[in-house]
Amino acid sequence: MRLCERTAHDLRGMLVRGEVTSREITESVLDQIGKVEEKIGAYLTITPEQALAQADAADARIRAEQGNRCGGQCGGVGRGGDDATGQAPGILGIPVAMKDNICTRGIRTTCGSRMLENFVPPYDATVVKKLRDAGAVIIGKTNMDEFAMGSSTENSAFHITRNPWDCQRVPGGSSGGSAAAVAAGEAIMALGTDTGGSVREPASFCGVVGVKPTYGRVSRYGVVAFGSSLDQVGPLAKDVEDAALLLGVLAGLDGCDSTSVPKPVPNYASALDRGIKGLSIGVPTELFGAGLDPRVRKLVEDGISAMEGRGARTVQVSMPHAEYALAAYYIVATAEASSNLARFDGVRYGHRAAGSEDITSLMKRSRSEGFGAEVKRRIMLGTYALSSGYYEAYYAKAMKARTLLKRDLEAAFEICDVLVSPTVPFLPFKIGEKFDDPLSMYLADVYTTTANLTGVPAISVPCGLSDGLPVGIHLVGRLFDEETLFSAARALEEACGVARMRPPAACGCGDVEEGRNGR
């Protein structure tokens, strides 16, 4: 197996033992990018020179830390040497890709939009600073739906991204570039942002693990806002252990973000192997009804049975207001988007149109030229929902539905520890298939939006393949109880035998790698 196909926890063990260097890992990832990026289109910006410099710095830091741990007696751990303490260096030296709405000092941050095409931030987002401090190697910025609005990564102003499992299909959105990069071996791990399912939905479509943490668990400082009460940064990884490892680095209080919560960050990795014997899994009857593709249903039900085989017990629960989640989400999200994106007017921020005669035409032309169709559609929807005479009819009702959904979850978590459902009701669709039917595309988020409206954590884990395409199971937990989610997800991953799934593009061939799925 090539280095770019390995997991971060596998690679960090190799780094500690001196079997490989961060430069070799980074070169393997860059080599894979050179082989498949033209086909996949996962990136908007690739920073090979900076990445190699960071890798060299990481190698020097590993040698120094290992030398300090052995008191200088071993002279540091060289190739083939042993770790003096058995401690792993976290994500030190591991290549990580970054969704392009996360500010990176000195690296272009476009949000997939012509509006910010030439924006180079003078500062790092808090999550980027944490990764740099941990010694991660930032490999580049990944493609996304413009301003994180979309479910297919077809709404990028620059190019579409293709699904590594079938290049005729979408990778999901809006973090489709990050998910495709991880699946195709173009990054070991990646960051996405999740406003209504934008980490979990592409994770499901690309056969990787995606996490939406509890609201307030991870700082949003330096992340270009879409829906401020919904947005969260989340990890995308090849398996559950990598996702836990990365979230452990990202989580924690940040004084730059007033919504950041001062709660201790558990050791997520230690929760992975505690098992699910006796765990109560709630199955909401409303989420297994009409509109669910039978192929997806079968794999999800098989996954639930596999968890029962590992000692969990299932209970039927009711989410009586689940049918309102999608509508409420699109009112709240578009309302917040219309407010957040008002700043991009060509005067304060963003693209400035040339040849305007006055301030009104300058703003009008700048926004007309800078924003794409989906962003304009959502700004108009949000502005309408907030307008005088319609606020009570739409926005106020959406907020009431949000409260009812919170009560549904509180009632459900009185009788179960985790909720389970499909992540997306259908298989990855073909490029262009839903592009002209936005309402149909919005249905991709039907199972994921409740977690954003209520703030609870959720994770998507691959549970198998149907017709050669990945299917994800969606697990939802109590507020700040990511540990239970990770332990359940780890058990599910092992039971389904999906941790070794690799798409054709990752293998550099047209066939799925042998032994990818034990099902």
Descriptive tags:
disordered C terminus, 17 helices, 519 residues, alpha/beta, single chain, eleven-stranded mixed sheet
Global mean pLDDT = 92
Strand order of the largest sheet: 1-3-2-4-6-5-10-11-9-7-8
Shape: globular
Rounded radius of gyration (Å): 22 Å
Number of helical segments with 4 or more residues: 17
The topology string of helices and strands comes to HHEHEHEHEHEEHHEHEHHHHEHHEEHH
Termini Cα gap: 21 Å
The parts where pLDDT drops under 50 for at least 5 residues are 74-88, 509-519
Summarize the amount of helix as a percent range: 25-40%
- Biggest sheet descriptor: 11 strands, mixed
Class by SSE composition: alpha/beta
Q: Strand percentage, roughly?
A: 5-15%
Strand count: 11
Walk me through the structure.
The chain is an alpha/beta fold. Helix content is 38%, strand content 12%. It has helices at residues 8-16, 22-40, 48-69, 126-134, 176-183, 200-206, 240-250, 268-271, 294-309, 325-340, 359-370, 373-386, 392-412, 438-442, 449-454, 482-496, 504-507, and strands at 43-46, 95-99, 137-142, 189-194, 209-212, 232-237, 280-284, 313-317, 418-422, 458-466, 469-476. Strands 1-3-2-4-6-5-10-11-9-7-8 form an eleven-stranded mixed beta sheet, with helices on both faces. Helix 2 runs antiparallel to helix 3, helix 5 (176-183) packs parallel to helix 6 and helix 9 packs across helix 16. The protein starts with 7 loop residues before the first helix and ends in a 12-residue tail after the last helix. Mean pLDDT is 92; it is low at 74-88 and 509-519.
